[in-house]
Specification:
By secondary structure, the protein is of the alpha/beta class. The protein is 46% helix and 18% strand. The protein has twelve helices and ten strands. Strands 2-1-3-10-4 form a five-stranded mixed sheet, sandwiched between helices. The chain has a five-stranded mixed sheet with strand order 7-6-8-5-9, sandwiched between helices. It is globular and about 60 Å long. The protein starts with 14 loop residues before the first helix and ends in a 5-residue tail after the last helix. 42% of the residues are buried.
């Protein structure tokens, strides 16, 4: 039978149908939110971890930090970047670590100068390692410093420095990577043993020191053997002695200071990683294990040892104990030298 009702077109929807469609859309949005929430959390967790370095790019500590950062990025499955905060022998970087939130996003790679020597040489360093830092991992406690000379001096052994000093009075200038550093006090020990007047010349890190030493602007320098090694291999500088109780494997003809008659430089230097005080123990454990795994990698070990860094991993307790040992031994040397905290 014919009907007078107009046919319903596809573009026309009842209020009830519209309500159903809205409900389906809301359910779908809820599912999408649930699915994307873990992704958002994962992205938040992948914020880069910063490794602060208190010395300029191009130096030995900076090179070690970049090798470690690459390995840690893999071990932690998280971006790890190096951020240089040079100045005052690592003081600026140490203060930045103290000010950082203890959320695991900021670490400090440092040598013993910053954490064991600065507290003895500065009246108010602005930080106390035992109170403001948490030890994460020891990278090495077998680092070396070395005395080097520019080729123009024609000096081949430590005892020759005394004769050179007599021929060049007032010119025994020895570059050191930072004021009030172990190399500066080593200059004092050298002067006392050789009975010569020496002048330590502080720089803002090993890289600028080496630029002047290689360029002949300064006749002598004492700094990390890691930084000196490539220039010694290319004959741009000559190594005269190294610290520690054994010679460097890559420079077997270079004697230790002890063998050269200079006492007091038998101990080695360390490099370690710290986090701000208050960092969760679970994060400290995770990072320490990541450092251990990174240093166990053949690739990382080869690269660091190629830089002259002998690997000797230790956990948080090992790092804290090594720093305390160095602080105690060099603290006595600093006091006996008459050095006045700045």
């Amino acid at each position: 039978m014919p009907t007078n009702r107009a046919p319903r077109t596809p573009s026309t929807a009842s209020p009830r149908r519209l309500q159903c469609l809205r409900g389906i859309a809301l359910v779908a949005m809820g599912w999408m939110a649930a699915l994307t929430a873990p992704v958002a959390l994962a992205q938040s967790a992948q914020q880069p971890i910063r490794i602060l370095v208190g010395f300029p790019p191009g130096g030995g500590l900076d090179a070690s930090a970049r090798i470690l950062a690459e390995g840690l990025s893999t071990a932690l499955d998280q971006p790890v970047i190096v951020e240089n905060r040079p100045g005052a022998g690592g003081l600026i970087a140490a203060q930045a670590l103290k000010a950082a939130a203890p959320d695991g996003k900021t670490l400090l790679l440092t040598n013993d100068h910053t954490v064991a020597i600065l507290p003895h040489t500065l009246k108010n360093p602005g930080f106390s390692p035992p109170r403001d830092f948490t030890a994460v991992a020891l990278v090495t406690d077998k680092g070396f410093i070395a005395l080097a000379t520019h080729a123009s001096t024609q000096i081949t052994q430590v005892k020759d420095v005394a004769e050179w000093a007599r021929k060049h009075p007032g010119q025994v200038n020895m570059g050191v990577p930072a004021p009030g550093s172990i190399p500066e006090f080593a200059v004092g020990l050298l002067a006392k043993s050789l009975h010569v007047e020496t002048t330590p010349v502080p720089y803002r890190g090993g890289a600028p020191l080496l630029a002047d030493l290689v360029g002949g602007q300064i006749p002598f320098g004492i700094t990390s053997s890691v930084e000196l090694a490539p220039y010694a291999k290319s004959k741009k500088v000559r190594l005269l002695a190294v610290s520690g109780t054994s010679r460097l494997a890559e420079f077997p003809d270079v004697p230790t200071f002890g063998e050269a008659g200079i006492a007091g430089l038998e101990s080695s230097n360390l490099v370690g990683i710290y986090a701000p005080a208050g960092t969760a123990p679970s994060l400290i454990g995770r990072y320490s294990e990541a450092v251990r795994a990174t240093l166990a990698s053949d690739k990382t070990r080869a690269r660091l040892e190629g830089q002259g860094v002998p690997i000797n991993y230790g956990g948080p307790d090992a790092l804290a104990q090594s720093v305390q040992r160095i602080s105690d031994s060099w603290g006595a040397v600093i006091r006996q030298s008459g050095y006045q905290p700045q």
